[in-house]
Each structure stands twice: as C-alpha cells, then as structure tokens.
Amino acid sequence: MKPIGIKKTFCTTREAAELLGVSVGTIQLWAETGVLEAWKTIGGHRRVMRDSVDRLLHKGSDSGAPPISVDVPDKAIRPLRILVVDDDVNLLRLYEANMSRWPMAPTVMTASSAITGLLMIGAKRPDLLVTDLHMPDMDGFYMLRVLRNTPELAHTTVAVVTGLDHSEIARHGGIPAGIEVLPKPIPFDRLQAIATDIVNRGRFLMPALPVTSAPPIPQMNSPT
Q1: Are residues 87 and 190 both part of a single domain?
Q2: What whole-number distance in Å separates Cα of residue 153 and Cα of residue 187?
Q3: Are 123 and 38 contained in the same domain?
Q4: I need a labelling partner for 56 at 20 to 30 A (CA). Which of 27, 112, 156, 206 fits?
C-alpha cells in the first residue's frame, strides 16, 4: 500500500525565510509583531504556521508583477535602488516615470500594497523607501513600525508622502523618528534631493556623461 504523504502545517524560521526571500531575523521580527503566526517549542525553537506564510505570499503578489527574487548583498558599485509603496497604481506609474529620469539613473521598484512592500524590502534591500500611509489590508503606519527593527532596513532612508495632515498622523499613533513626512501632491524635487544626498554619501553607479566630439583643429597653411 502506497504511503500517504502528509503536508507539514508548520516550518522553521529558515524554511520560512527561504520561501519568502527574506532573512531569518526578519522572519523572527514578523513573528513577534504578528505578521506571521508562530509559536515556540519547549526547546525554544520558533515554528511558523505554513498557512500564514502562504497567505503572505499570496497577498504579496501584485497582479501582473514578476516574482520577487532575492538579491545577494553586494559591495560593488551599483545603481541606487528606490522602492515606492502606494496603493494607487496611477501614482506608481507617475513615480516610476519621473524618478527614472533623475540624473543618477536609479533602479525604481514599485509595490501596490504594504505586504508586497515588506517582501520587496527583504528581498531587494532598497536604499530609499518612499511610502504612502493610508493603504488597505496593512497600512503604512503598521508597516513602518514593523520595519523599524528590520535588519534589511538598517541602511535604508525612508520618506513618507501622504495626504494626511500632522493631526491625523498623530491620531494614528505617529511614525518612527527620523522619517521625513512630505505632503501630496508628490514633491519630486525634494525626493530627488534626498536621493542625491544618499548618492553623495555612498558608492553608486552613475551614468556616463555623453562624449562630445572635439571641434576639428584648424590646419595651418604651409608657408610658400
């Protein structure tokens, strides 16, 4: 009689990290903050419910978006990475069209939900995160609180672009210190200044300046 395979209902933090494309430390943080359902064994080992991992993978898949692949941390010079999180797809297109023309020629990535943003931050390790606050399912307030201690965000600059005023932000519990809050409509000049400051402080690949041909050297007539 052929044995019946039983699907595991839980996984280790390392297995969850491999499935979601983030670090083990991030999985531990998400378990502690309730993003993932988990418990600890008698021996102190954390186990993650496989259903909660599958739900996060399902919610984090933007319609039509390519699968999220994990970037290997690099020390080589590379383009600036920018991740924009906003549930308005038209604004995401506007961000991408504008930012892609900036002088430093950044790599611009977008996510239409906070959950997708969490996965992309863990996998892509952006240098600049630009996020809205008012989003369905998981809002930007909660996402920022989760990310406050996320290892992948340690060297990421965060800017919030929102239509909420300071009193509304305060009613939601505020946002972590050190994050600049910018009003809508999108202040692209200020965002570009933030990106330029990041480039000036790091080692990023800059586009080569166009080579202009030198004017021809006039030929002197030989004396006759």
Answers
A1: yes
A2: 23
A3: no
A4: 156
